[in-house]
């Protein structure tokens, strides 16, 4: 591990087997009666082949290591076994795999699952069952690591069940990877197709509800104007408002938060020490919430813009109180916040105390429990904008997806891969309409092992066009990742001020919320067509397996600017907030019940033997009936369509009746330390209520005998590489960064600097739009009237005299 805490990427090497992915999810189970004969040719290595390898087996692996392959007499049965040994390892692995050929590689069916089995002996804890697949278009590529094998001096049986075979796959190959010094000896491989015992689901709602889910508006309103939502380790929800974008609250020093308890539907208002309006936040590895920066000052017409302070706080879910940390090095209004694999937090962007853009990267040390001084943090002196979506990759680098808040994206392609250790930024191509991704949503698709990111929707508050329907998907496992076009977001209805009408043309939405669901799909909901105006009523569920959207029931409440949607531990989705340009606030709270909760009884996790988990370990739970998969979902910490830490990590299973052993990833960059919701899911996609488990951080990592089994992905980048630029203090940012003209109304009111298409550049047309959107009385601040709303110059915009013959 490097001094900074990142795991260093492997150097670029040529693999003996084409690889293009990191571990996807799988299911480990006890062997079931075979539904077919053994699909492995020469499973016991008894038939000789070429190059010193048995028939239908080949040498494979990559990286800098010393190794031997040997057919040995120390067998489980018969006369031969395969032994793979590493005597020195810098990186990479070695493995004996079924030969990639039509004669040897087993044929598989799309959507089917297969039970794999083998006998093994190991002298290293760093060995794993590894699976590759043949894509009919892209060829052979790495698919998943199935299970880390426990050390075993005697012959030991390992059985695994593959995930459902992805579309486009016709064959697979597999074997055991050795990625630490020592050896693995294997014998007697088996592969059998699993039958399809899927019991019929029972609809417990109306036919429409069972297809589309249902929304319920809760009878009790949210007591605070919360724009930040954090699901806590105890299942409660921290709702942070600060001033709530209210000038009156700010001037009075009235700053609030609330803790919502989904179990009984109650709220508790929490004293809040600072205006955390538009702060950054993230769960620390111990379950506390780190809150960074916030609003130091609202804009002043003709003067400064928003200002961010340096203060930082920690919220403790146990005591429900805030305590102050040391200060950050700079102010950051609208900062990013991403947890790294060692528990550190890295943060970029936002506005400084003087309202210019911050170019200072900040790093919270998990070991020292403080923000590190500037000289200890790598700096590119780049301006990443506001709430840049920075997603941790499986090798410790960060992927800037192109999602951000306010205005345009970063220069160049709009997305990039940032390597902290090398302190370089490499442009990533393919993101369409990169400058219309304001308050789009980006999410690491389930499972996190697949390393695919979906970016959807967005607009631009500077030019204020109709928000778009575009979605783009990138596979970060590829050697040179490129965004490719995804399916458009389904259209719904939009309220342009005269009631809901169907969306037309290319109309989509910004202010998008994207929520990972325990059945492995993604709910997208909420949104608006323009800058703080024209709510869109539409929701759909994206299936990563088919790359398609399924329209579902829409939230009846407007959910635009300052709205959030997030997963609750019981599998429902909660949606809060809406702060249109007229300054009002929607205190109603909506709950979405997805279709999977209307399919009859749900499985139950009856016990979790140990809630403290470590990387590479096996943990046991018990369930009340059969399940087909389990996963960890990181609880939400969402604001402004942004939650870069949201992730769904598949857990391999090993089943013995009601006892289920869960195999935990050995890679902390795949599942950063902290508290997670553990779901068990049955064959119909129905999830249990989550149990909370704690995946431990740096102390657990110190016990690793080798770095995690991480392949060399995104390692042939062809985009432009940027080294650190010249040292500077800030980036100049205009005072209209929020898309609001502060010459009119109070600070909580947003009169757009650019009106939507169809609004003519006349006083009458603009005033009619403002009236239709309930702006009410608007005082003119100062003597300037840049939008021509006060031609009578009486200090009141859109007054009766302003509309005479205009």
Brief summary of the model shown:
By secondary structure, this protein is mainly beta.
Care to describe what's here?
The structure is a single chain. The chain has 806 residues and is mainly beta. 3% of the residues lie in helices and 34% in strands. It contains four helices and 57 strands. Strands 1-4-9-6-7 form a five-stranded antiparallel sheet, with no helix packed on it. A five-stranded antiparallel sheet has the order 2-3-10-5-8, with no helix packed on it. Strands 15-14-13-12-49 form a five-stranded antiparallel sheet, with no helix packed on it. A hairpin with an 8-residue loop joins strand 32 (471-475) and strand 33. The termini are far apart. Mean pLDDT is 92; it is low at 1-35. This is DUF1929 domain-containing protein.
Largest sheet: 5 strands, antiparallel
Fraction in helix? under 10%
Question: In percent terms, what proportion of residues is strand?
Answer: 25-35%
Strand order of the largest sheet: 1-4-9-6-7
Note the quaternary state here: single chain
Sequence stretches where pLDDT stays below 50 over 5 or more residues: 1-35
Q: Kindly report how far apart the N and C termini lie.
A: 69 Å
Domain Galactose oxidase-like Early set: 602-694
Pfam family, one: GO-like_E_set
Domain Glyoxal oxidase N-terminal: 257-583
InterPro entries: Gal_Oxase/kelch_b-propeller, Gal_Oxidase_central_sf, Glyoxal_oxidase_N, GO-like_E_set, Ig-like_fold, Ig_E-set
């Amino acid at each position: 591990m490097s001094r900074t805490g990142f795991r260093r990427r492997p150097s670029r090497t040529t693999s003996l087997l084409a690889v293009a992915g990191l571990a996807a999810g799988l299911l480990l189970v006890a062997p079931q009666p075979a539904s077919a004969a053994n699909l492995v040719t020469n499973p016991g290595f008894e038939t000789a082949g070429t190059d010193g390898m048995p028939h239908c087996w080949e040498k494979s692996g990559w990286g800098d290591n010393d190794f031997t392959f040997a057919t040995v007499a120390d067998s489980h049965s018969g006369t031969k076994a395969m032994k793979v040994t590493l005597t020195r390892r810098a990186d990479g692995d070695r493995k004996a795999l079924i030969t990639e050929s039509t004669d040897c590689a087993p044929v598989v069916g799309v959507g089917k699952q297969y039970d794999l089995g083998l006998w093994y002996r190991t002298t290293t804890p760093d060995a794993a069952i590894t699976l590759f697949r043949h894509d009919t278009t892209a060829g052979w590529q790495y698919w998943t690591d199935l299970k880390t094998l426990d050390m075993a001096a005697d012959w030991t049986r390992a059985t695994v069940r593959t995930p459902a075979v992805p579309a486009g796959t016709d064959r697979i190959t597999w074997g055991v990877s050795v990625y630490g010094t020592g050896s693995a000896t294997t014998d007697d491989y088996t592969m059998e197709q699993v039958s399809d015992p899927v019991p019929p689901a029972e609809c417990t709602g109306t036919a429409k509800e069972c297809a589309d889910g249902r929304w319920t508006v809760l009878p009790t309103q949210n007591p605070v104007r919360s724009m930040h939502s954090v699901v806590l380790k105890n299942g409660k929800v921290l709702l942070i408002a600060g001033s709530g974008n209210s000038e009156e609250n700010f001037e009075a020093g009235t700053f609030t938060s609330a803790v919502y308890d989904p179990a009984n539907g109650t709220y508790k208002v929490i004293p809040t020490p600072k205006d955390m309006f538009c702060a950054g936040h993230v769960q620390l590895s111990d379950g506390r919430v780190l809150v960074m920066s916030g609003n130091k000052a609202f804009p002043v017409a003709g003067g400064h813009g928003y200002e961010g302070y340096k203060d930082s706080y920690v919220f403790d879910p146990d005591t429900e109180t805030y305590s102050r940390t040391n200060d950050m090095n700079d102010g950051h209004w609208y900062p990013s916040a991403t947890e790294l694999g060692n528990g550190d937090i890295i943060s970029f962007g936002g506005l400084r105390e003087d309202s210019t853009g911050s170019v200072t990267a900040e790093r919270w040390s998990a070991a020292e429990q403080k923000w590190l001084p500037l000289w200890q943090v790598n700096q590119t002196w780049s301006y990443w904008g506001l709430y840049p979506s920075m997603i941790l990759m499986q090798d410790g680098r960060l992927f800037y997806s192109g999602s951000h808040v306010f205005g345009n994206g970063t220069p160049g392609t709009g997305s990039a891969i940032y390597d902290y250790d090398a302190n370089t930024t490499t442009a990533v191509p393919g993101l369409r309409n990169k400058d219309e991704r304001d308050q789009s949503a980006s999410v690491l698709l389930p499972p996190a092992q697949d390393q695919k990111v979906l970016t959807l929707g967005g607009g631009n508050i500077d030019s204020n066009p109709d928000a778009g329907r575009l979605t783009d998907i990138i596979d970060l496992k590829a050697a040179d990742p490129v965004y490719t076009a995804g399916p458009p977001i389904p259209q719904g209805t939009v309220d342009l001020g005269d009631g809901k009408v169907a969306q037309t043309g290319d109309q989509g939405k910004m202010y998008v919320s994207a929520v990972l669901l325990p059945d492995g799909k993604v709910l997208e909901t909420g949104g608006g067509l323009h800058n703080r105006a024209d709510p869109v009523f539409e929701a759909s569920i994206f299936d990563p397996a088919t790359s398609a959207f399924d329209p579902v029931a829409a939230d009846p409440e407007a959910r635009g600017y300052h709205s959030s949607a997030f997963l609750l531990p019981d599998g429902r989705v909660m949606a809060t907030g809406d702060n249109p340009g007229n300054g009002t606030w929607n205190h109603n709270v909506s709950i979405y019940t997805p279709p999977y909760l209307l399919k009859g009884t749900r499985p139950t996790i009856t016990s979790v033997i140990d809630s403290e988990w470590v990387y590479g370990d096996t943990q046991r739970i018990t369930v009340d009936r059969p399940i087909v998969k389990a996963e960890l979902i990181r609880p939400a910490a969402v604001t402004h369509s942004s939650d870069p830490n949201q992730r769904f990590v598949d857990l391999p299973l090993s089943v013995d009746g009601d006892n289920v052993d869960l195999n935990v990833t050995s890679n902390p960059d795949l599942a950063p330390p902290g508290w997670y919701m553990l779901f068990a899911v049955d064959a119909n996609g129905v999830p249990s209520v989550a149990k909370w488990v704690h995946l431990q951080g740096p102390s657990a990592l110190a016990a690793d005998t080798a770095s995690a089994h991480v392949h060399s992905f995104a390692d042939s980048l062809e985009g432009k590489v940027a080294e650190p630029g010249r040292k500077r203090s800030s980036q100049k940012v205009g005072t209209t960064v929020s898309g609001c003209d502060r010459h009119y109304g109070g600070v909580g009111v947003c009169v757009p600097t650019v009106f939507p298409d169809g609004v003519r550049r006349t006083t009458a047309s603009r005033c009619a739009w403002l009236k239709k959107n309930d702006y009410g009385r608007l005082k003119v601040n100062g003597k300037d009237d840049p939008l021509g709303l006060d031609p009578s110059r009486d200090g009141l915009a859109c007054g009766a005299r302003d509309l005479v013959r205009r």
